[in-house]
Amino acid sequence: MKVLALETSSLVASVALVEDRILLGESILKHKKKSLSRELVFMIRDMLDGLEVRAGDIDLFAVSKGPGSFTGLRIGVTTAKAMAYALDKPIIGVPTLDALAYNVPTCEHIICPVMDARNNQVYTALYQWSSNIGHRCRQRLSGYMGLKIEELVGNIRAMVDKTGQKVIFTGDGIIPYGDYFTKELGDKCAFTPYGLMFQRASSVAEIALDLFLEGKQDDCFSLVPFYLRKSQAERMRESEETRLESRNS
């Protein structure tokens, strides 16, 4: 079964083709937001051409649905939906944090993907690996969260003090906050290598395949990005509306 997956939730976009859990190809590109829609189409075309696979040969389309970049997610989800609809194939949207946690090899540590959400905030969740169903799988220990970095560290410190486990961080949030994690958590934290730090379409494909084999899929019309929080423009508009209401009252 061939799965074509798209990952566009950050400034590192990727496209992957997986067949029966075997990675046939993956293309990763750090892009400029303004050119992502064009570059993504080229990445898909070049991968399929290089592997001599026709678009009609794809059995399942998968896409990272967020949280992440508002513009990137819209482009990725729209592109995947358009292809799935045109070819009359199933589609599955995969939470970005689930796929990011999937990058981390099987380990006994708590896994904490952190995506930089700016303004001293991150998108995150907590995970552990399990192998009790015949192959490795993830177990999410928390909800999807958008919170300040200090609050995340406080939550993690309470968890590691209680369980004695270490936490392994992955995601682009390591870049601005890695030193802070080390300062606050000491030897209770570790970090993935740089090559595993960013979102990958191959992880999106594997999770989507698991979900599909469980009988799950999304509707091509109702699938939308999962933003977790409102865009900056929406927050600014609401702030301005609140200010005007306060002034007029």
Protein topology:
Blueprint: E1 2-7, E2 12-19, E3 22-30, H1 36-51, E4 60-66, H2 70-87, E5 91-95, H3 96-102, E6 110-118, E7 121-124, E8 127-130, E9 137-140, E10 145-148, H4 149-163, E11 167-170, H5 174-185, E12 189-191, H6 201-213, H7 232-248
Task: Name a few traits of the molecule.
249 residues; Nucleotidyltransferase, domain 5; single chain; 2 domains; 7 helices; 5-stranded mixed sheet; alpha/beta
Assign an overall shape: globular
Widest sheet, order of strands: 3-2-1-4-5
Q: How do the SSEs run, as a string of H and E?
A: EEEHEHEHEEEEEHEHEHH
Give the overall average pLDDT: 89
For the secondary structure, the number of strands is 12
Examine the secondary-structure arrangement and name the CATH architecture of the largest domain: 2-Layer Sandwich
Q: Report the biggest beta sheet as strand number plus sense, adding barrel if it closes.
A: 5 strands, mixed
CATH class assignment of the largest domain: Alpha Beta
Radius of gyration: 19 Å
C-alpha termini separation:
61 Å
Number of helices: 7
Low-confidence stretches: 231-244
Question: Which oligomeric form is depicted?
Answer: single chain
Percentage of β-strand residues: 25-35%
From the 3D structure, determine the CATH topology of the largest domain: Nucleotidyltransferase, domain 5
